[in-house]
Amino acid sequence: MTNLATTRRGLLQGSAALAATSVALGAASRSGAAPENLAPLAVPAGGVVPVAFPISDGAVLIDFAGPWEVFGNASYVGADGTMDMAGKAGFNTYTVAEKKSQITVGGGMKIMPDYTFADAPSPKLIVIPAQGGAGDAMIAWIRAAAKTADVTMSICTGAFVLAQTGLLSGRSATTHHGSYADLAMQYPDIRVKRGYRFVDEGNIATSGGLTCGVDLAFHIVERYSGRKRAEQTALNMEYQGRGWMDASGADKAATLYQEAIQKQPDDYCLHENYADFLTAVGDLKRAEAEWRRVRELVPHDYLAHFKLGWLLERQGRLSEAEAELRQAGVQRPYMIEVCFELGEVLVAEGKLEAALQERQRALRLRPHDDECLYQLGKTLALLNRRAEAIQSLQEAVRLHPSHWQAHYGLGGQLALESRVGEARIEFEQVIRIKPDFALAHLNLGVALMKEGRFAEAANEFEKTAQLDPANQLAPNYLRQARASQKPK
User: Tens digit of pLDDT for each residue in 251-287?
Assistant: First the structure.
């Protein structure tokens, strides 16, 4: 699957809102989840918590080495805070990768993974660092391993890897400060909290950039073993930071940006970062003003045009958004994210043929890309060119079997072509990947009814109603399915 978030610089420069649904970016609460509000974590019977670090090429060293060191040091501290030099209890850390071959991480360090995804022990704690090589195998492994883990946590832009698993959907999360807006744009169903050292939602946790991962690791030690053990571990490491006790640094963030800009009003990078910050908290008007200031300072800054286009679209100012995005495309004709976003704007304007041209241009820029094929298939479907839409979506799911949106779109097109059996298979695949997606259960139920499998259809309609009580179709279909069942 295409990863638009392979590097921090890439995250700063390229963003695309790829989801079909629009979710408002509400201002985040400033009060982080305090440790006392979270359930303590139980250490396994053997006294050791297995901690897996899934890594790939480009993994940022401090993102995994920092937490690794915290968990390692915690193993030499007793539950009462006294030293236990045996080091036999606490945390067992290990690396996991797709293959057991050498990996080059940040700074050029070479690492040989301890395990592969096929033979790794089942972890109770998963730590996902920022990295550039996370592929489908890693995403699938994290998704499966998280089912039995106590906590799955990401460090820095590792949040983008975690987001790909779907585990962050509908949750609050944070990431590196330079990537707040990108996370919000690429995953609009995630509530991005800016300025936080970390965000802990119980079984899912995310940290800010780099050193924030150390704070999150201390916080996790506290959840397993209490404040005394965490404090003694910090003392042994001569770590003087207190961020692990108070996750929220958001109160001062806006003030710090404003003070920095007052001192250096012509520093366009400061205006860019402040604009991303404002976007993440939902202050789109002020974010727009900051990007316009960037454009004044750097007239040919394609990123300013792109981000302005995105902001204007979210405000419903479609013609202005189109103009900004077209200008970004002139300055960076090879920037695929412009094709994606401009295509969305054109669809919203009803300019479907023009949108199709953008989808086709994206595919020329990145042939055999599952996301390009998915976007192309969606647009062809809107133009009622079903045969071509089906072909494009089939190729998308062939390239990326876990692309649930492509499976769902393909199922819809097959259903419209009365290819009911094939449609049913696609909806079943969506549910395997995203079991809480109510519309997939609804459409699967309809397909099952058409096949005469009324009892199974009724089960799917019941699940739809459970997942989405506001769905008005499910009760009607459920009555039809029950009425059609043959008496025993």
Answer: 566 788 899 999 999 999 899 988 887 876 678 899 9
Q: What is the bridge-based pairing of β-strands 151-154 and 115-116?
A: unpaired
- Neighbouring C-alpha atoms within 13 Å toward the C-beta of 424: 16
Rounded Cα–Cα distance for residues 156 and 290 (Å): 24
Whether pTM > 0.70 for this model: the answer is no
Q: Is 409 helix (H, G, I), strand (E, B) or coil?
A: helix
N residues, the chain: 488
CATH number of 298-484: 1.25.40.10
Residue with tokens 């974590």, as numbered in its chain: 41
Q: Rounded to whole angstroms, how far apart are CA atoms 104 and 112?
A: 9
Among residues 371, 435, 445, the alpha carbon closest in space to that of 409 is found at 371
The C-alpha angle with vertex 318 and arms to 316 and 319, in degrees rounded to 5, equals 145
Beta strand 115-116 with 191-192 is unpaired
Helices 370-382 & 386-399, crossing angle to 10 degrees?
A: 160
- Alpha helices in 400-472, H assignment, sequence order: 404-416, 420-433, 438-450, 454-467
In words, the CATH class of domain 8-248 is: alpha beta
| Domain ranges, ordered by start, for the chain | 8-248, 298-484
Q: What are φ and ψ of residue 199, in 5° steps?
A: -130, 125
pLDDT in tens, 153-167: 999 999 999 999 999
Please state, in angstroms and rounded to a whole number, the distance separating the CA atoms of residues 91 and 76.
10
Quick check: 405 and 374 in contact, CB under 8 A?
A: yes
CB-neighbour burial class of residue 280 (10 A; exposed 0-12, middle 13-18, buried 19+): buried
Cα dihedral 292→294→300→306 (10° resolution): -60
- Are 146 and 169 a contacting pair, CB within 8 Å? no
